[in-house]
Amino acid sequence: MAPSAQAHKRAHSLLLFEKLLNLRDTASPLTLVLDTLEQSAEPLTHEFMRRAKVERAKVIFVAFATLKKPALADIFIKARGKSLQALAAEISSHTTPTPSPQPTQKSLIILDTLTTPPTPSLLPTFFASIISAATSLLAVSHTDVPPLPSLSTNEYAPHPLTLLTHLATTVLRVVSLAHAAAARRARERSLPEPGWGLREGREGVLVGLSSAKGEDGAGGMEMRRRSGRAVAERFVMTTAPAAGEGGKWVRVVVMGDHPVFREGDKEEGEGVEEEMGATFSLGLTEKQRRDREGVVLPYFDAQVEVGGGEGGRILYDIGREDDFDEEEDEI
């Protein structure tokens, strides 16, 4: 049986996401990761660095808020207090290849946060100076942290997050898997989606963070192809201990294929009352199905040919209450 169009679309989106994680064919020169307090981007950036080490790429970690060098990073650059020009020159010194007959080594540059850039208007020039054919840039932005007032006097300048999403070739939004499942259950019951963290509106306390401490996460991807067409899909990233190693094994699936979000492939009527919360059965038992098939429909005899080529004739018996009209009968 040929795969459906939806299955083909899911397989294509999963292939694009795997190419993005593996830094294959410069799938995305600038990847923007948007996270929140409920779900940090750290598990995703860790997976990017792990796969970069498998591909023997150099990992350059630029720290605006991180104090300790990550274990998988090759170069650790402290960016606090430096101008974008000086920072770009320092990063380029680690990515510029030396004259060698061997192929150029790939590089992955990670910016741990771009929530409060010094001057947002200089970001396009900054990105263009550090991105090359063998370099991929991964930048993280915290969407629930308000940016500092811009030093620019242009009141019509776009919001820093708007500018970042416009420049990025791929935008990844990470959310907690438990929170995404709870929101889906609320939508199925036509209830308002619950809020967590700052969206709860509780003063002085953040509730709902405990359910986001797990390693499993979900998120949406929006990748802009070279042709200008955007590919959007949602994925689930699950982790499990790797056999014989101290690390963890990561598996990425399309959200529709995950057991929590998979559409039920049961027969029609089976299990509907459980999903909708009904107290009665909406399906048919086997006995009811056989009885329905054995019912003789009205005027069933009219479907059988009667002699003389009169097939399709309607047989009608006049009742006492019927008004017999001879003129209509003749017509």
Automatic annotation (TrEMBL):
Record has tRNA processing as a keyword: yes
Main subcellular location: cytoplasm
Listed GO CC annotations: cytosol; elongator holoenzyme complex; nucleus
Localization in the cell: Cytoplasm; Nucleus
Record pathway: tRNA modification; 5-methoxycarbonylmethyl-2-thiouridine-tRNA biosynthesis
Signal peptide as annotated in the record: none
BP term (GO), one: tRNA wobble uridine modification
Pfam families for the chain: Elong_Iki1
InterPro entries linked to this entry: Elp5 (IPR019519), P-loop_NTPase (IPR027417)
Keywords assigned: Cytoplasm, Nucleus, tRNA processing
GO molecular function: tRNA binding
Family: Belongs to the ELP5 family.
Name of the protein this chain belongs to: Elongator complex protein 5
Organism encoding this protein: Staphylotrichum tortipilum
UniProt lineage: Eukaryota, Fungi, Dikarya, Ascomycota, Pezizomycotina
